[in-house]
Amino acid sequence: MSSTDTNQNADPWLESKLTLRSELKFDTRWEGDSAVVVIEDPVRSKYFQIGEREYRFLALIDGQRTAREIIDLLNSSEDFPQPDLTTQLAIEVSQWLVQTNLTYGKDSDNGQRLNDQSDKINRQKIMAWINPISCKFRIFNPNHLLAKVQPYIQWIFSVWFFIAWCGTGLFASVKLYQHWDQLSIASTGILSGFSWFWLLLIWVFLKLIHETAHGIACRKYGGEVPEAGVLLILFTPMAYVNVTSMWRFTNRWHRMAVSSAGMYVELFIAFIAVVVWTETSGVTANIAFNIFIMSSLTTILFNANPLMRFDGYFLLSDLLNIPNLYSKGTKWFGDRTLSLLLGLPTTDNLCKPKESRQVAIYGCLAFFWKISISLSLIIGAGVLFDGLGLLLSALGVTLWFGLPMYRTLKPLFLRNSQRSINLLRTGLSLCILIGFGTLLFTTLKAPAIKSAPAIVQFSKETHIRTDAAGFIKNILVEDGQRVHKGQLLIALENPDINNEANQLNRLIEESEVQYRIYRKQNEKSLALAEQTKQKELKEQLVEKTKAVEGLKISAPFDGFIFQRNLANRLGSFVQRGDELLTIAPFNTKEVVVSIDQRDLDSIHNNVGNPIKIIMPGLPLFQSQLTRVNPRASTTSTHPSLCAHADGPLPVRPIANSENAEAPDFELLAPRFNAYIELQANHSSVLKSGQRGRAIFPTGDQSLGNYFYIAASEWLECKIKFATQTAAF
Fold first, then answer.
1. To the nearest 10°, the Cα dihedral for 315, 320, 326, 329?
2. Are 573 and 602 found together in one domain?
3. CA torsion, points 637, 642, 646, 649, in degrees to nearest 10?
């Protein structure tokens, strides 16, 4: 006999005499070709689902037999000749019955164990309530309220409404396809123009509808909803209702209908919102778009995600006919992980043989998804709440990782542990993990490069200004047009300047006549004065002639014209010195790189060195970094780099000083501009306004620190964009 069997035979759980609570209800049903049993605890409104093997064990619990006697009786029975019910299974089922408060023991030891277990459960509830990142609060029993509204709402689960749902979804999909370009632009500023208060109202409204749909569907098929409350994730409220009574439904399609009811209704609201968004404008369109995103994207990412214990998980569990898929998967993954790291023997019969592949795949995916979500929430708390976020992150790490690991590993190191660990394997695993962590944060280096958004623009730009005041009469060029030296660009009109020039010409002619008269009359002094007057008038005429010529704006050299909304200035009045447009010579372009403040030192170290540039549709090329502007600015280098124009840089709206109703945008954080000089062959190919990325070397950094900073920066960017634009 192995040491493991000896330890199991000496386990006190095998000598325990348990008694099932009398108020429990059992319902046997067939799921595919196998039988399952649903245990209903009507006192606590909880439901548990067990397999056929476990139910054989439960059926013989009577308070008189020990767990060992029940196992011996079953394995010696003619009905079950194969010994598929092991002592390990008896121990696990007995422990589970006590942990879930479905049974009690007659002797004092068992009573004390139950009391200890009750205290443990209460402590777990308290820890769940004080969890600052995720906590759950029960508020009221909605069953009576749902009974009143059910007759007026349950029509949404009728066949004709489903047909209407499909038709509306198809129509909304067509609308979405037709406005796909506007969708990508609108999604960058989803929160712009709204306060958090109104966004929160929309969110709460949608979640109330979502949970109400679950409750109505549950009652429609004969279930009850004894509990409703609020789940807080990073202090964001999410409503919930307890529809576990659906597990008494023998028809799995009814259970799937209850699980999908919330998503079903929310997606219908999303379809309506899409239609409203595409057919309206202004505030109405913005509200509709926000409703569409919150009732579709969030529903798909969270509620429909089968790796989280939300609606999608219960749908998948029923679809695969694998009850308790999450617990089986996590238990399988934990068992194999402990076996790999600590050398523990693997546990057999964690699931049925035909379920093993699905359970194993699900267990691995669910574990890594939970890790990624937990880390994201912990990092998000640290970014969102600044100093307090560090405390929240520490509590999150302790509650989500520290305590579960402690509870899992503690029994293995006790003297009376029923599962002996392999010390050599444990030490080797610990050394490998410590070594990997050390390598990750010390030896392994992050990619020695970083990228930043870049834009192509002309390097030798000349701003064309007016030499005279006047009204813009004709605009003879367009933005991006190629022009030649001396070509007329803009014609101004100013009747006053023309009249003054004509008046000066007439005065000069009159002065010349008077000058000749004085000469004939031999009035030398008067002739000399008239001659001086003529000189002054001619000087004034030269200035006026220049002003008249200044009413015609011509190209000073061959180049390109670029000026946004130039045609809108037709008929407007401009003062002398006002800028009208910009002209740049051919093939004199440069790349302007927008640099984050944290990368300023790295970019300074690369001045004078070649920098790699990526432009869509072109092969990777290099060019020299010439200079860095020492002053940071919240003004974007080019509008196309901003998020509201589908660019990579987050911005926030600000009030325009000239027109408070016309919004303008500025960067969330100041950035520096670095300039890369382009060679003639690259300058001739690239177009002004073309967007790309510049790649430059960075300082020495560990791979672990690189990943952490990258995740923090990404979350910080998203949170700043959401909070600062929504506050406008």
1. -160
2. no
3. 110
Q: Is residue 359 within 8 Å of residue 351, measured between CB atoms?
A: yes
The range of the structural domain enclosing residue 549 comes to 462-581
Residues 143 and 292 in one domain: yes
Q: Assess if residue 417 is contained within a domain.
A: no
Predicted local confidence at residue 530, as pLDDT = 82
| Residue 355 and residue 325 in contact, taking contact as beta carbons nearer than 8 Å | no
Q: Which of 321, 346, 366 is the last residue of a domain?
A: 321
| Token reading at 710 | 């990258």
3-state SS class at 638: coil
Chain-centroid distance, C-alpha 479: 37
| Domain end call among 528, 554, 581 | 581
Residue 429 included in any domain: no
User: Alpha helix (H) ranges present in 553-631?
Assistant: 600-604
pLDDT recorded at residue 373: 76
Asked whether residue 434 is domain-assigned, the answer is no
Residues 6+ apart with CB under 8 A from 204: 237, 239
- Examine residue 313 and state whether it is found in any structural domain, yes or no: yes
Query: Are residues 543 and 617 located together in one domain of the fold?
Result: no
Cβ contacts of 64 within 8 Å, gap of 6 or more: 17
Residues 698 and 676: their CA atoms lie apart, in Å, by 17
User: Which CATH number does the domain housing residue 43 bear?
Assistant: 3.90.930.60
Q: Which amino acid is at 132?
A: P
- pTM surpassing 0.90? no
Predicted local distance difference test score (pLDDT) of residue 3:
41
One domain, residues 313 and 168: yes
686 with 593, same domain: the answer is yes
Secondary structure element (H or E) that encloses residue 463, with its range: strand 462-465
Give one DSSP letter per residue of 409-422, joined into a string.
HGGGGSTT-SS---
In sequence order, what DSSP letters do the residues of 219-260 get, joined into one string? HHTT-----EEEEEETTEEEEEE--GGGGG-S-HHHHHHHHH
Output 275-284 pairs: Cβ under 8 A, ≥24 positions apart. 275/168, 275/171, 275/172, 275/175, 277/179, 277/186, 278/175, 278/176, 278/178, 278/179, 283/193
Using DSSP's 3-state secondary structure scheme, residue 124 falls into helix
**Overall size of the chain counted in residues:** 728
What are the distances in angstroms from CA 372 to CA 303, 378, 379? 17, 10, 10
| Residue 128 · residue 136 · CB < 8 Å | yes
Question: pLDDT below 70 — which residues of the chain?
Answer: 1-12, 30-34, 43-45, 77-86, 104-134, 184-199, 233-236, 349, 377-390, 392-393, 396, 399-400, 412-419, 446-448, 564, 644-646, 653-664, 699-701, 709-728
**Do 26 and 146 lie in a common domain?**
no
Q: Does 176 lie in the same domain as 317?
A: yes
Measured over all CA atoms, what is the biggest interatomic distance in the chain, rounded to whole angstroms?
154
